[in-house]
């Protein structure tokens, strides 16, 4: 049995904390095919905080699909 995990460290830590690999004696395979969105400079921030920071800088409204994330996707 294999467990697949994203290359993102937080995903790997979550898998470790769940103990799935220990409980199921599973092999862990790190794969880009299931990696999460890369928020770059916005990593860990809420949408509200991102919009507030952009407003303080005089930047317009933010939409992830239109504007993306600096330093990320």
Chart the SSEs and their pairings.
Layout: E1 2-5, H1 9-18, H2 20-24, E2 27-30, H3 47-56, H4 64-67
Parallel strand pairs: 1-2
Question: TL;DR?
Answer:
This protein has four helices and two strands. With 73 residues, it is of the alpha+beta class.
What does this 3D model show about the protein?
The mean pLDDT is 88. It contains 4 helices and 2 strands; from the N terminus they run βααβαα. It has helices at residues 9-18, 20-24, 47-56, 64-67; strands at 2-5, 27-30. With 73 residues, the protein is an alpha+beta fold. The longest helix has 10 residues, at 9-18. It has 2 domains: 1-35, no CATH class; 39-66, no CATH class. Strands 1-2 form a two-stranded parallel sheet.
Oligomer: single chain
The SS-based structural class is: alpha+beta
Distance between the termini: 32 Å
Strand order of the largest sheet: 1-2
For the sheet with most strands, the description reads: 2 strands, parallel
Number of domains: 2
Radius of gyration equals 17 Å
Number of helices: 4
Poorly predicted regions = none
Secondary structure: helix percent: 25-40%
- The arrangement of helices and strands along the chain is EHHEHH
Strand content: 5-15%
Mean pLDDT: 88
Strand tally is 2
List keywords for this structure.
single chain, 73 residues, alpha+beta, 2 domains, two-stranded parallel sheet
């Amino acid at each position: 049995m294999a467990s697949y995990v994203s290359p993102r460290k937080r995903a790997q830590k979550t898998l470790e904390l769940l103990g799935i690999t220990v409980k199921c004696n599973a092999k862990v395979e790190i794969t880009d095919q299931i990696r999460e969105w890369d928020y770059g400079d916005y990593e860990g921030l809420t949408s509200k905080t991102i919009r507030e920071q952009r407003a303080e800088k005089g930047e317009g409204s933010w939409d992830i699909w239109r504007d993306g994330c600096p330093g990320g996707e």
